[in-house]
Amino acid sequence: MLELLEGASAPGVRRFDVDAFVQSNNLLELLSKDDVGSAGALLTTLIGAICKSGNNRRSAPRAAG
What we know:
The structure is a single chain. It contains 3 helices and no strands. The protein has helices spanning 2-8, 18-23, 40-59. It is mainly α.
């Protein structure tokens, strides 16, 4: 897992912007092998972050105009 985190923060690696994703029309397909060392925990965390951002956006007051 440490290698994954180090790779994700390497120079030139694009970061996933959860809030921008929730506001977009983009589709995210999450796939993981059902095996030891799978990315299941990472995917669960990502899905939780997306749901939280969506709930925050939905409950935020809307600007007039």
